């Protein structure tokens, strides 16, 4: 299968027309104390749906004056509808993980993942993220769409898919 460069004229047109969305885990770069004298701390994260995974944390980062907010993990899905369903399932799973660790609850859609994986170990976080995704997929299969599994893929696969569509002239 022929693929096109991101610099080709067909690639941006195809990318613009595609409905691929990123489901991102954004959050603080690491845990911080929640209050003066707090020895446990918090590690706020939340799930965000966006077309551009690398800018998913930009708004939250601008709104946080003392801690950087970054994209910690993400997966790509084929449509916004799939992304929204996966986001809801992931949010529910994150809430369960937070409660299981007896973490301090946070406001709005922020979840405290302190202690859910080895802090400072990216591999541990990636393994945990894979488990969270599987739990969310299991949850989706047992909810309203029995047997539903949302196809997830990484940025390299998204590029391959888009470039194949562009090469075929499909938008």
General shape: globular
The number of domains: 1
What structural class do you assign from the helix and strand content? Answer: alpha+beta
Task: Output the number of helix runs.
Answer: 5
Please mark out the parts with pLDDT under 50 across 5 or more consecutive residues, or reply none. none
What is the percentage of strand-forming residues? 15-25%
Encode the helix/strand succession as letters.
Answer: HEEHEHEHH
Whole-Å distance between the termini?
A: 17 Å
Instruction: Please provide the count of β strands.
Output: 4
The whole-angstrom Rg is: 18 Å
Q: How confident overall, as mean pLDDT?
A: 85
Describe the sheet with the most strands.
4 strands, antiparallel
Amount of helix: 40-55%
Strand arrangement within the widest β-sheet reads: 3-1-2-4
Summarize the structure.
This protein has 171 residues and is α+β, with helices and mostly antiparallel strands.
Written overview of the protein:
The protein has one domain. Helix content is 41%, strand content 15%. The chain is built from five helices and four strands. Strands 3-1-2-4 form a four-stranded antiparallel β-sheet. α1 packs across α5 and α3 crosses α4. The model has no long low-confidence stretch (mean pLDDT 85).
Q: Could you outline the blueprint of secondary structure elements for this entry?
A:
Layout: H1 10-17, E1 21-28, E2 44-50, H2 58-63, E3 69-77, H3 80-100, E4 111-112, H4 122-142, H5 155-168
Helix pairs in contact: 1-5, 3-4
Using brief descriptors, characterize the structure shown.
alpha+beta, 171 residues, 4-stranded antiparallel beta sheet, 4 strands, 41% helix, 5 helices
């Amino acid at each position: 299968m022929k693929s096109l460069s991101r610099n080709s004229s067909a690639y941006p047109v195809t990318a613009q027309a595609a409905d691929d969305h990123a489901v991102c885990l954004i959050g603080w770069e690491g845990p911080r104390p929640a209050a003066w004298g707090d020895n446990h701390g918090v590690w706020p994260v939340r799930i965000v749906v966006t077309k551009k995974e690398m800018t998913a944390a930009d708004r939250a980062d601008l709104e946080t004056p003392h801690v950087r907010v970054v994209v910690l993990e993400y997966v790509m899905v084929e449509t916004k509808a799939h992304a929204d369903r996966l986001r809801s399932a992931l949010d529910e799973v994150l809430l369960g993980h937070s409660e299981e660790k007896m973490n301090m609850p946070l406001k709005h859609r922020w979840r405290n993942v302190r202690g859910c994986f080895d802090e400072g170990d990216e591999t541990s976080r990636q393994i945990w993220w894979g488990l969270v995704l599987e739990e969310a997929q299991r949850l989706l299969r047992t909810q309203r769409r029995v047997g539903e599994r949302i196809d997830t893929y990484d940025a390299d696969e998204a590029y391959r898919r888009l470039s194949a569509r562009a090469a075929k002239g499909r938008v």
